[in-house]
Design brief:
Elements (H helix, E strand, L loop, with lengths): L1 E12 L6 H6 L4 H8 L2 E12 L3 E5 L6 H8 L7 E6 L2 E2 L5 H11 E4 L11 H11 L4 H14 L15 H14 L4 E5 L7 H18 L2 E6 L2 H7 L2 E6 L2 E6 L1 H6 L4 H6 L11 H4 L6 E3 L4 H11 L3 E5 L5 E6 H9 L21 H10 L4 E4 L5 E5 L1 H9 L4
Parallel strand pairs: 3-8, 3-9, 6-7, 7-8, 11-12
Antiparallel strand pairs: 1-2, 1-4, 4-5, 9-10, 12-13, 14-15
Length: 393
């Protein structure tokens, strides 16, 4: 369900900024606008939707307009033209009192450089927004303790910010943002100041929090790997324009233009491409009720030496190999049950990176199962390699 809808949004900096819009609509670029009109284009005709509970990433290189666009959501930057609809209401038209309420209760922001008050304790930093709202002392303290526990800082409530590491400071910033119980978290390059190990730890922590709290998160980054790891969907920006919005997997598989194609060329595809993209339908699946002779005949038809086994409801039961089935046939057995072996399986959402070890060890093609353990497809080692190389089509 769409929570936020941005329509034809422009943000131009300078005197009489609306002068730039006709030129932009005529196809003039931001460099030409700056040279001829002395106006700086931050956002150029951006349109997107953010769904409730979605982790939405806006990414691009420095100067692409991503942070400017984020600051338009809560009107830290006043857009030059366009609409930002929240539950159908255009927040660019609300008065100052209504805007204040949006900033206090609907949006909450986490900054790159923590923005902690150095003379206040960790708890007092988390309480700061609640204090502005006039919440009672006891309630503020309880909420601060709860949020700090949630982000893994239990026991640090009365420490001062200069006693904390960079990652811990960012956790305080996150706890402060969550304390207001916002509908939407706006996160501007929140992890870019952290060293790589702490950054990965914070990414995982944020995903864990998201799975628990189901907040809507709009996250800004210049790091494509971070965007691909975190985002349900990603908007890629260049020169103030959104050049592509899609899921990480679709961006890798179907880049919108040469800019995106060049942008993604060095990405570790194994961390993005899922089983659903590389699986294929098996030519033959043995039924649990079938006899050995029938199975041998059907496997010979498709030149299989190994096959998956399902019951009458397509529930996966394991795999068999032709040699074992032939032994059962010689022994006069009328069931393939003694030959069925257990197998490691994956789900449609399993990343290539997470199935590599099982694939290397396995003598069979990895079965892909849904939540009811129905067999959806199989994945071969060659399919995995093709997915890594971008040849999964």
């Amino acid at each position: 369900m769409s929570l936020i809808e941005v329509k034809n949004l422009y943000k131009v900096f300078g005197s009489k900024p609306k002068r730039a819009i006709p030129a932009l609509e005529a196809g003039k670029g931001k460099d030409e606008i700056l040279k001829k009109m002395k106006l700086s284009v931050g956002v150029n005709n951006a349109s997107l939707t953010v769904n409730k509970g979605e982790f939405f990433v806006i990414m691009g290189l420095s100067g692409s307009g991503k942070s400017t666009l984020l600051r338009c959501f809560n009107r830290i930057h006043q857009p030059t033209a366009g609409q930002i609809l929240v539950d159908g209401k255009d927040i660019l038209k609300v008065n100052e009192d209504e805007l204040r309420e949006y900033r206090r209760h609907f949006f909450s922001m986490v900054f790159q450089h923590f923005a902690l008050l150095p003379h206040r304790t960790v708890r007092e930093n988390v309480e700061y927004g609640l204090k502005i709202q006039g919440e009672e002392e006891s309630s503020m303290k309880n909420k601060a303790y709860e949020m700090l526990d949630l982000v893994g800082l239990k026991g640090y409530e009365e420490k001062m910010p200069d006693e904390l590491s960079g990652g811990m400071k960012q956790r305080v910033g996150l706890a402060r943002a969550l304390a207001n119980e916002p509908e939407v978290l706006l996160m501007d390059e929140a992890f870019s100041a952290l060293d790589p190990l702490i950054r990965k730890e914070m990414q995982d922590e944020l995903l864990n929090l998201q799975s628990t709290l189901q907040k809507t998160i709009i996250f800004i980054t210049h790091d494509l790997d971070e965007a691909l790891y975190l985002g349900d969907r990603i908007a890629i920006m260049k020169d103030g324009e959104i050049v592509q919005t899609d899921t990480p997997e679709q961006i890798l598989k179907n880049p919108a233009d040469d800019y995106v194609r060049e942008f993604i060329q060095d990405v570790n595809r194994a961390r993005v491409i899922t089983a659903s993209s590389i699986m294929r339908k098996p030519k033959y699946v043995a039924k649990l009720s079938a006899g050995p002779k029938t199975v041998i005949r059907e496997m010979d038809k498709v030149d299989y030496t190994i096959a998956c086994v399902t019951d009458k409801n397509r529930v996966f039961k394991g795999y068999i190999n032709l040699e074992d089935i032939a032994k059962l046939a010689k022994q006069g057995e009328d069931s393939i049950l003694p030959a069925i072996k257990q197998a490691s399986t994956v789900t449609p959402d399993t990343l290539i990176d997470d199935m590599l070890a099982d694939s290397i060890r396995a003598s069979y093609q990895l079965p892909v199962l849904d939540e009811q353990e129905h067999l959806l497809g199989i994945i071969s080692k060659s399919s995995i390699l093709a997915g890594i190389l971008g040849e999964e089509h």
